[in-house]
Amino acid sequence: MPDARVSPLLETSALTKEFRGFRAVSEVDLAVEQGTVHALVGPNGAGKTTLFNLLTGFLTPTSGTIRFDGRDITGQQPEQIAHLGVARSFQITSLFDQMSVVDHVELALASPTGLGYRFWRSAGQMRRFRERAMALLGEVGLADRAGAYAGSLAYGQKRALELALALALDPKLLLLDEPTAGMGLEDVDRTIALVKKVSAGRTVVFVDHNMHVVGSLADTVTVLQSGKVLAQGTYDQVRTDERVVTAYLGQAG
Amino acid sequence: MSAQLEQRVDVELPTEPSAVGRRPVVRWAMLVVGLIVTLALPWFVYPPVAMDIAAWALFAISVDLLLGYTGLLSFGHAAFWGTSAYTTGLIAINSGLPFPVAILGGAVVAMLLAVPIGYLSVRRTGIYFAMVTLAFAQMIYFIANQWRSVTGGENGLQGIPKNLGGLTDLVNSDSFYFYYAALPIILIGVFIAWRTVNSPFGRVLVAIRDNPARARALGYDVERYKIMAFVLSAGLAGLAGGVFAVSHGFASLQELIWTTSGKVVLITVLGGIGTLWGPVLGAALVVSLEDQLASSGFNGTGIITGAIFVVIVLAFRHGIWGTARNGINAWLRKRRQGARSD
Questions:
Q1: Hey, which of A129-138, B107-116, B162-171, B312-321 has the most confident mean pLDDT?
Q2: Cα(A174)–Cα(A201) distance, rounded to whole angstroms?
Q3: Is B218's CB within 8 Å of A112's CB?
Q4: Complex ipTM, two decimals?
């Protein structure tokens, strides 16, 4: 068992994904230390979401490797990676519209137990997860919407539910794809506080365009451009990096 | 926040405006009415036709389990209905065992057949899944057509007996009695479907239907769930096909042909997918209509059922049952709001 403090929790080496000759992700070396919050930033089309999809098994890399928690997970299926302790939220809010909020969380909590295969048991069995589900909903501020259909939630609430689902898997690594996308200022601040709270003692990698969010949350930042790593370091290091300023921050500022 | 939380845990959760089929009272009432109608059916309908309705209803429910609850359109379900029809017939003819045992054997063989077919088709979705299942069903049809020594080829399998121990003479004397002897098999099949839909497994299926990528990210092995649903569905189609074969006393290639796969999808969509009640209603409608048209000497049954299908699908997207349910719900909501504002 390798010492977790020495080797990073998540490590990619020369990770590459090509789509018909187009390199969406190109030889990315990424190291995420245990217990840190790591931001991926970069302009649209920089390969952030593709990288996320590679890390969670939704895409298979063209070349390169991904190591998580001391083992090679390159080419594993999404559900296997989820079971190893990697949970993700989706950029486009992606929920089961016909299901109630609390049912969502119960479904996530039931996933590692194998209860889902029991077609001969009553769905009432899912209630054994209710207490834990309500606690999680309380954590993200959705306790009073537990009985509502996910389809009827406001946008910010949907994002909060996304977060609750990811947390329900009690992941070692939490991947958040644009947790504040499309939010108003108030919701952004609430989400920052929320992510701060849940990231205590966890390792988090997130993508966000909002520099305010990145600055408030991230211990380390990786800047991507055209699928390549442009710069890596702390927020202040990256912010003052000349290449970054011209490539990305310069446009934004 | 945590104090507020603890209070909430055991409290009945606030829910969306209650809907028909969600309130237990309504659900039980529907179940009782459904059972009474099912039990009374051979008094009003020619018993063999009543039996056909029951068999097609379970067959359509098996399709609904995939189409309505898992999001998979199988266009080859005749393979399981027909394979079970032949297997049931062969067991009944060659062993003399009671017909429920033969039907069970047919259903088991249908499920075994569904394992490889399911394994190879669930990787595809949408129209590709439909095409792959159709291709496998055509293969089974071809084999049955060629394997004359076992299936009787174009003549089919004749003289399937209705054995039932000491009740054999009674069951054979009148199809009225056979209806009640075979109905429990259909009801067990419907119960299995209902149980499955309302189980933790059913929850996962709905999640997969609505958002497969999300289900995978939560750690659910989507393909495995789909294969399980496919095999379960094939078992139900097998029970239905076995009852149908024993009821008619023969199994023919008609049971395996692609139009049978099409008809059961039509019945399911017509009645309303994702409801279980819808397929029952669809079966009652289509089977009795076909019977009426056939006995009136009309030859273009397909034109009538096809035209009705087009109209229903265009006008009522959720099928007859789904549309009726939505209508009643809207009316109930309006009435409740009216009562509140008074």
A1: B107-116
A2: 11
A3: no
A4: 0.84
Strands (E), chain B: none
Alpha carbon dihedral B28, B30, B31, B33, in 10-degree steps, equals: 120
Query: Is B14 in Cβ contact with A146 (below 8 Å)?
Result: yes
Which residues of chain A are within 8 Å of residue B216 when distances are taken between CB atoms?
58, 77-79, 82
- What strands lie across the sheet with A10-19, from one edge to the other? A22-32, A10-19, A63-68, A71-72
Nearest to B203 among A82, A123, A131 (CB): A123
Smallest Cα distance from A116 to chain B, Å = 5
Q: How confident is the model at residue A193 (pLDDT cuts 50, 70, 90)?
A: confident
d(CA A91, CA A208): 10
B203–A149 CB contact, under 8 Å: no
Kindly give, in sequence order, each residue whose CB lies less than 8 Å from that of residue B248, ignoring residues fewer than 6 positions away.
Answer: B48, B160
d(CA A38, CA A32): 7
**Pick from B157, B119, B175: nearest CA to B256:** B157
What percent of chain A has a predicted confidence (pLDDT) above 90? 35
pLDDT digits (tens, 9 = 90+) for B304-318: 777 877 887 777 778
Which residue in B203, B222, B225 is closest to A126 by CB distance? Answer: B203
CB contact under 8 A, A100 and B213: no
Min distance B201 CA to chain A CA atoms (Å): 5
